[in-house]
Amino acid sequence: MTSKLISGCVAVAVTFGGLIAATSPAVAGSACVPWTTTAVASGYGTLENLDFDDRGGLLLSELSFTGPGAVRKLTASGQRSTAVPDVEGPGGIVVVGDTAFFNTGNSTASGLLDAADGTIELLDLGTGKTRTVATGLTMPNGLALLPDGSLVVSRDLGAYTGLTRVDPVTGTSRPFAPSVSSTNGMIWDTVREILWVATTFNATTEIVGVDADTGQRITTLTIPGAGVLNVADDLTMGPDGNLYVALNVGGKIVRLDPDGGGSCVIAEGLPLTSAVEFGSGPGWDEKSLYATSFLGTVTKVSPQ
Fold first, then answer.
1. Residue 179 · residue 216 · CB < 8 Å
2. Is there a contact between 181 and 198 (Cβ–Cβ < 8 Å)?
């Protein structure tokens, strides 16, 4: 079933080195019009994250409150399977070539209790075998890969909610970008060469640009509305060069201009949306976003 969604254009603030500049009310070069939504799948447990394996599969992080979760696989034709069973608190997924990295230990209890029971795991997409890349992480939620091969995990609850940088060879980790708090979704911007980070529970919803070498905050975009009512979750970068942000509690997807700062709600009425990613691989529409939710759904969001 496909339905049209109402959208609106809003102005945002862009901060560079503490200076706030006025911005245009809409994303540069993009009309602020609603996209359409189509149900792809339902009936999963709590879905935290997704990425495409470029082999026809969509990998899904499925959490469970009654036992272990799993990394599931969904094809465009609707075929379901399990890529990795019995995963405690699966979080972010990042696919690189024949490898999928994913987090474990992404639970509220681990965050609040400061339990270092999280890991980064590697899944060989060819053989289906897994191995542990790093241990001793606390509530690793989002996951990103930097150009030097380092992995970065986020954390939005607990004593330290900045980023953590992990050496994939040695598995050692260190705090990274501690000035950014309540961190969640991340995406590496190959054009501007910065790491975009979404903040979740802060009073203001910020999408922060972080320098990969120093971890310093160099750019800040602000999405209108109270942070606790937005609850920004994961984000991605589109082929048009714009950022696309999932607002979990807000039930919206926002398109954000990383240069001018203008934002546009392209979809709403999507409760507890957790992650968004453009289609990739056989059977998936590269022009459409695919969104997961805590309600166990996968939704296709397509431009008009």
1. yes
2. no
> Rounded to an integer, what distance in angstroms lies between the CA atom of residue 59 and that of residue 287?
18
Q: What does the DSSP assignment read for 189-219?
A: ETTTTEEEEEE-SSSEEEEEEE-TTT--EEE
Token pair for residue 13?
């603030």
How many CB atoms lie under 10 A from the CB of residue 17?
8
Tokens, residue 30: 């993009």
25 contacts 262 by C-beta, under 8 angstroms = yes
DSSP, residue by residue, 83-122: EEEEESS---EEEETTEEEEEE---HHHHHHT---EEEEE
Q: Is the pTM of this model over 0.70?
A: yes
Check: CB of residue 94 under 8 Å from CB of residue 143.
yes
What is the average pLDDT across 162-183? 97
**Residue pLDDT, tens place only, 88-100:** 999 999 999 999 9
Q: How far apart are CA 143 and CA 242, in angstroms?
A: 19
Structure-token match 């709600």, residue found? 265
Alpha carbon distances (Å) from 267 to 4, 176, 286, 301: 9, 32, 17, 8
